[in-house]
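re: ur question from earlier - yeah i can do the single chain one, its not a big deal. heres the input i used so u can compare w yours
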Amino acid sequence: MKTHELKCWPPYFDDARRGDKTFEYRKDDRHFAVGDTLLLREWVPECHASPLRNFYSGREVTVDVLYKVDGDQFGIPEGYCILGIRLRAIDGVEPNAPQRSKKRHTSIMSEYGP
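and the output i got, formated as tokens:
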């Protein structure tokens, strides 16, 4: 299993971040496989309607590859693939990971001191 860092344009990145985008269509030059992880980094390309262009925004989502359809079938060109993906983390934080409550921490500190 590998981790692949990939550029992702803003509208598609936002869909992936919400969990609405459940697939990736990619050139299979990295030999993607089920079980791989994709680190999708938001990339603002030159053609995007922004005064700043060709830069990484700093936003990232991590997705797991659950399924792969290889090219040269179903209208997918040879050398390309469709990957079924599931959101794992947003900006390095897993959505279902337990979060430590600041309120509880503050409460403990007021009871027991620093």
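The CA atoms of residues 43 and 56 lie 5 Å apart. not sure if urs matches, ping me
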